[in-house]
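Quick illustration for those who missed Monday's session on complexes.
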Amino acid sequence: MGQTLAQRTVDKLGLNMSAAELQENVTASAKTDTVLIDVHVLDESPVRARDIANTLSDEFVAMVRELETPDSGARPDSRVVVEQRASIPGDPVVPKTLRNIAVGLALGIVFGIGLAVFRDLMDNTVKDSGTLEEITGTGVVGSIPLDKERRRQPAIAFDADNSGIAEAFRKLRTNLQFLSVDNPPRVIVVTSSMPSEGKSTTAINIALALAEAEHNVVLVDGDLRRPTAHKYLDLVGAVGFSTVLSGAATLDEALQKTRFAGLTVLTSGAVPPNPSELLGSQSARKLLHELRGRFDYVIVDSAPLLAVTDAAILAAGADGVLLMARFGHTRREQLIHAVGSLESVGAPLLGAVFTLMPTRGSLSYSYDYSYYGLPEPKRSSRGKTPVSDRSDPAKINATSDVDRSGASYDKRKSAE
Ligand SMILES: Nc1ncnc2c1ncn2[C@@H]1O[C@H](COP(=O)(O)OP(=O)(O)O)[C@@H](O)[C@H]1O
Ligand SMILES: [Mg+2]
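Prediction with adenosine-5'-diphosphate bound:
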C-alpha cells in the first residue's frame, strides 16, 4: 500500500498513528484469477480495523478516480469500486487463544515429563528396604507408616489401638526381641542422620510397645539440645538427664511416671552448655548403667548424627542403635555419613527403621512381604510360610515375625 493512500486514510479517520505505522498493519493482495483486491487490516480494536479497511477502500477508489480522469474531464478509462465492505470481525485474529493454549499445553507436558525424569534421576533419597539394608549393612527391622494423628498426639495408646502404625510398632518390638537372642539389647539408642526424621516419636512408641508387652521401660531423652519427650508426653521438662548429671537432683527425683503403665521417663532437663561433654562423661555411663539395672529396657532418644556427636557418644555406651531413615526424605549420603559416625565409635547397629512411610489407603499387610525381600504368598496357600533363602540372621528372624504375626512372642500374649 502506498504512502499517499496510508496518509489519506490516517487523515480521514484522524488516527493517532503515522502513515508508516498504518502500512505495517495493512496488507493488500490480489486474488488470483480475479481483478479483486483483498485488504487485511490488523488493529487492536475490531471497530477501528473495520473503519480503516473501509476508509482505505474508499480512498483508494477516490485516488484511482482522480488519477484516471483525463484532464479534459472526460470519463475515466478505468475505475475501481468497493465490491464488499469490511465488517467487524467476531473473533480476534491475534492472539490465537485456542492455538496458544494447545501449544502451551504441549510444551507444559513435555516440560513436566522432563522435570519428572530429571527429578527421578537426581532423587537419591532412600525409598526401598534393599537400599536401606545395603547402606546400613544391617536389616530393616521396622517400617513405621506416616500417621497424621501422631502430629497431634505422638504417643500411641497401645491398649486401645490396632491401627496400622500400632501394628508396625508391635512388629518392631518383636524383631527387637529376636536380635542377638543370647544377649538381647536392652539399652537402645534411637537416632537418625537429620532432624525431623521421626526419632522422638518412634522412640516413645517403641518404649510404649515394649511396655505393652509388660516390660518395665524407661525412656531417656538424650537429645539435650532439642528435647521433645516432655512435650510429646505432657511431662515436666525442667528436671531430667542433665539435672541428674550435674548433681542437682537424684535419679529418683528426676524419673517421672507417665499415664502409660510400664513407662517411666527421664526427660532431658535444662539444656546444658556442653551436651557432648556431659553425655561422654563417666557419670552419664553410670547413669545409663543404673537405669539398665532398674528397667527391662532403656530407650534413649537422641540428637541427629550429622549435626553433633551426641548420639554417637550415647551409642558407644549402649547395647545398640536403631537407625531411623525417613522414607523418601533421608538421602543416601546422609545415611552413609550416619553409619560412618556410628562405626567410628564402635557403636553396634541393631537395625534400620523406615519412618514416616507414606501408605496408600489403609496399611496393607502385603507390603511387609516385599519389604523383607520376600515374595508375597498367595492368599489361598495354607500356613503362610515364606521361606527366605538368605542367610542374614536378622532377616530370617524378621521372616519368623511375619510368619507368626508377632503376637505369640510377647509376654502378655503368651501369658494369656
Ligand atoms: N509416623 C509418623 N506419622 C506422622 N507424623 C510423624 C510420624 N513420626 C513423626 N512425625 C512428625 O514428624 C515431625 C518430626 O518428628 P520427631 O519425632 O520430632 O522427629 P525427630 O526427633 O527426628 O526430630 C513431628 O512433627 C512429628 O509429629
Ligand atoms: Mg527429636
